[in-house]
Amino acid sequence: MGIEMYEGWTRGQLVEELERLRAIVGKLGGDADVVHKSKNERGAGRKPTLTSELAADVRAMKTAGETYREISRSLGISVGLAHKACHLPDDQGLRPGAMSEQISIFEL
Predict the structure, then answer these.
(1) How far is it, in rounded angstroms, from Cα 3 to Cα 88?
(2) CA-to-CA distance for 103 and 65, rounded, in angstroms?
(3) What is the pTM of this model?
(4) Where are the domains of the chain?
């Protein structure tokens, strides 16, 4: 059962069918106009590790002339994350304040 089922239908018939299906979804307690949710209710999934504070530290170290490898070793992050921190525009994709929740291995 797919879109082939509706071949040959007039616009009016399609509108009526759409309204009928929306009514069914409404009775089931759903929202017929919602196609995709961008986030789930539980907040599940991998959390970003890059914070605005960490990105600022990485950018400062890179400006001071350190290599990505040196930065990654001193901050305990991957080389790819150090590169990403330098190339993301204006805190895009960063999780604010997350670094304050974590304990660095260098603080132990």
Answers:
(1) 42
(2) 26
(3) 0.47
(4) 52-97
Output the DSSP codes for the chain: --GGGGTT--HHHHHHHHHHHHHHHHHTT--TT----SS-TT--SPPP---HHHHHHHHHHHHTT--HHHHHHHHT--HHHHHHHHHSSTTTT--TTGGGGS--TT--
Find the farthest-apart pair of alpha carbons in the chain and give their distance in angstroms, rounded. Answer: 71
- Whose tokens are 């960063």? That residue is 94
Reported as a single tens digit per residue, the pLDDT across 18-67 is: 888 888 877 877 655 555 556 667 777 777 778 888 888 999 999 999 99
Tally the C-alpha atoms within 13 A of residue 27's C-alpha that lie toward its C-beta: 6
Based on C-alpha coordinates, what's the Rg of the chain? 25
